[in-house]
Amino acid sequence: MSKTSRQIKNLTMFAFYLAIEVVLLVTPLGYLRIGVLSATLLHVPVIVCACTMGTKYGALLGLVFGITSVINATMAPTITSFAFSPFITVGGFTGGYQSLLVAIVPRVLLGVIAGALYEFCHKKGLSVAISAACSALVATILHTIGVLGLIILFYAAPYAEAIGVAQSALMAAMGTVILTNAIPETIVAVVANMALTKALSVKK
């Protein structure tokens, strides 16, 4: 395959993943409301993109994911949306530039980690399916830890007040987030990535 043909193919594939992200953003499938919490499926295309196209494209789609988080928090805010958008004030809580870090940095790293881990596992001789499963599992967990960790780092006190818990109990509340959001998100990511990466991967 010529360089031009490969570039066209990559742009076409990335446009496909980008279209999925946009569809998820503008439909209820992208962000599922659970009280003040918001579960998401937008991490799945990022992981699949990273595994099938590499870390560069994964990071770029992760950036899109992060930007959609800011848009969602701004246009359809909940009481905790200040942690993801500096453009709103909800219930007396206002985000700052740190909100952009919370919303964007873990999502870019999601694409980098997913792509790098998939490549590492595959080079070690693991099958496409197993490599994809390991990539999705680790990347999704680290993504969740990254988001929650940055929230605690930048907004521990206001976030605890917003969700109605003492700051000393915030870690326990985050544990509930992991149980209600992260576990289902991880399972979906692993199953989807195994199936889609195997179907979309092209032998090099």
Low-confidence stretches: none
Largest sheet: 2 strands, antiparallel
Strand order of the largest sheet: 1-2
Helix content: over 70%
The number of helical runs is 6
Strand content: 5-15%
Number of strand elements: 4
Q: How far is the N terminus from the C terminus?
A: 10 Å
| Secondary-structure class | mainly alpha
Indicate the radius of gyration in whole angstroms: 17 Å
Indicate the mean pLDDT: 89
Helix-strand pattern, N to C? Answer: HEEHHEEHHH
Shape: globular
Top keywords for this entry?
two-stranded antiparallel ribbon; 74% helix; mainly alpha; globular; 204 residues
Word description of this protein:
The structure is a single chain. With about 200 residues, the protein is mainly alpha-helical. It has helices at about 5-25, 45-55, 55-75, 95-125, 130-165, 170-200, and strands spanning about 30-35, 35-40, 90, 95. The strands form two sheets. The chain has a two-stranded antiparallel ribbon with strand order 1-2. A hairpin with a 2-residue loop joins strand 3 and strand 4 (about 95). Helix 2 runs antiparallel to helix 3 (about 55-75), helix 2 packs across helix 4 and helix 2 packs antiparallel against helix 5 (about 130-165). The chain is globular.
